[in-house]
Amino acid sequence: MSHANSAIPYTTEIREDTGLYNGKLGMWLFLASEVMLFGALFSAYVFLRLGAREGEWPHGLLNIPIGTFNTLVLITSSLTVALSWTSLKLGDFQRYRRLQYVTLGCAVAFLAIKSFEYNDKFNHYEVWLNEPFASQDHPLLAGQAVDADAPIPSIIGHIEGIGPFQTVETLKEAGATAVTIHPDKYHYRLSAWQQAERNLKEASTRAGATSADAEDHAELSIDLSRVARLSPLAPRHSTYFASYFTLTGLHALHVIGGILAFAYLLWPGARMWREDPERYTNRIEVTGLFWHFIDLLWIFLFPILYLL
Amino acid sequence: MSEAILISEPPAATAPSADVEHVLRMRKQFLRVYGALVVGTVLTVAMYYVYFEEMWQTVTVALLIASVKGSFVAAVFMHLWRAQKSLYTILLYTGVVAVGLFALSVYSIFSVPAPHYFVR
Fold first, then answer.
1. Which among A44, A86, A91 has CB closest to B26?
2. Which of A5, A188, A305, B5 would suit a FRET pair with A44, their CA atoms being 20 to 30 Å apart?
3. With an 8 Å Cβ cutoff, are B98 and A35 in contact?
4. What is the DSSP letter of A61?
5. Are A143 and A192 in the same domain?
6. Does B93 touch chain A (CB under 8 A)?
7. Among A192, A219, A234, which residue terminates a domain?
8. A169 and A259 part of one domain
9. A199 lies in some domain
10. Which of A29, A39, A72 sits opposite B41 (nearest CB)?
11. What average pLDDT score do residues B64-88 get?
């Protein structure tokens, strides 16, 4: 053994029975338990998604360009982790360090973008009405109706002048009597956004406006006495958002764990490179396995949460 | 020399034993897989603009693309391509449980009279 005094055996040597060094075997056992954890959450999500009635599952509320960019950020970090490991294999510590700076940068960027998305959702509201609006009275809300003449039971958009996590009760306690909402162009109940576009064009033409007006200028003041429920796009909004925040929140915790591990190995833990480079390289390999697993999770999370 | 300097500039240590050519080949593989993952991501997003009649069709295509991308990550980045038998054993058990969970979900959807009862 290269570490004669080490209490931990097989840090670099291969065990005959497993064909692996212990760290790698341990990481794979941990990842197997992670598959069970996320597998249960994924299967619950798919069950709920397939069981949802048409128009009841929020659709199109997440920012796809931002989600795509974040996916590319995470994939890039996976590449730099893999390349940094090969640099250590070739004895090039400086190159390894530069690549790991990029990895950490990508990881922090991923979390920053996710925080921006979370904040946007906490300030984005749905307002359910006691009595649905007649779409004929509100032609520029046609994108919120199932078809151009259908009633509008709820409106989704940004509410002027209120912070995150408000409810009807908290607004009333604060003395508000009405809310001013800037409705989104489309409501998620329309599973095909093309249909919403058609509705909007039809209703806008009748009202003598353009669909761009609906997006840019629609503003609606609603008396709180007409509001049955008001919720930000937070976990309490719906099963979808409860699932979204559970899955992405748990994923973000893993990203934070990965950052801590890589940062430790990059700075205080780098001492080991001088003493036992092979063991240090193995540490990077197993931490890399964890990081690639995080990437793998996101590869599945992105389509099911953002696109379905 | 202070400890901080030692940490930031570790002296040249003996490089871990490695077949240089093999490592360089792996580097090229990693770059190719990265390219494939980027293309896969673009395809996934493009799928959003394709309208499918049934939700299960959308879910199937999305999960298929994700599975191909995931396989690349697992096979190349995580070195599962030609890995040790013990790893395959661990993953076999894991896979059986994971597939079982999904099978239960699918079974429930076709067995419970009104699954949307659970969804507001």
1. A86
2. A188
3. yes
4. -
5. yes
6. yes
7. A234
8. no
9. yes
10. A72
11. 93
H-run or E-run covering A178: strand A178-183
Average pLDDT of span B86-100 = 92
Return the residue in B8, B51, B73 with the most chain A beta carbons within 10 A, the one to mutate for interface testing. B73
- The answer to whether position A296 is within a domain reads yes
- Rounded CA-CA distance A257/A160 in Å is 37
CB atoms within 10 A of CB A72: 15
Confidence of residue A216 (pLDDT cuts 50, 70, 90): low
Count the domains in chain A. Answer: 2
Which two structure tokens, joined as six digits, stand for B42? 């673009």
- Same domain, yes or no: A133 and A213: yes
Domain that holds residue A127: 123-234
- Please give the pLDDT value at position A8: 77
* Alpha-carbon B120 to chain mean position: 32
Residue A273 lies in a domain: yes
- Is A219 inside any structural domain? yes
**Residues A194 and A285 grouped into a single domain:** no
Average pLDDT of the segment spanning A257-276: 97
Which SS3 state, helix, strand or coil, does residue B104 take? helix
Last residue of a domain, one of A216, A234, A252: A234
Residue A1 pLDDT exceeds 90: no
| A267 and B CB contact within 8 Å | yes
Are the Cβ atoms of A91 and B16 closer than 8 angstroms?
A: yes
A262 lies in the same domain as A171: no
Radius of gyration of the CA atoms of chain B, in A:
22
Query: Cα dihedral sign for A22, A23, A25, A29?
Result: positive
Give SS3 for A156.
strand
The whole-angstrom separation of Cα A76 and Cα A74 is 5
Axis crossing angle, helix A64-89 with helix A277-302, rounded to the nearest 10: 160
Residues of B in contact with A75 (CB under 8 A): 34, 37-38, 41
pLDDT attached to residue A210: 57
More confident: B35 or B57: B35
Give contacts of A56 with chain B, Cβ < 8 Å. Answer: 116, 119-120
A228/A258 same-domain check: no
Nearest CB neighbour to A295, from listed B11, B14, B73 = B73
User: Which residues in chain A touch residue B6, judged by CB atoms under 8 angstroms apart?
Assistant: 271, 274
CATH number, domain containing residue A274: 1.20.120.80
- When comparing pLDDT for A136 and A207, which is higher? A136
Inter-chain CB proximity A36 and B41 less than 8 Å: no
Stretch A239-245: mean pLDDT: 95
pTM: 0.88
Same domain, A46 and A76: yes
Do A155 and A222 lie in one domain? The reply is yes
Predicted complex ipTM: 0.88
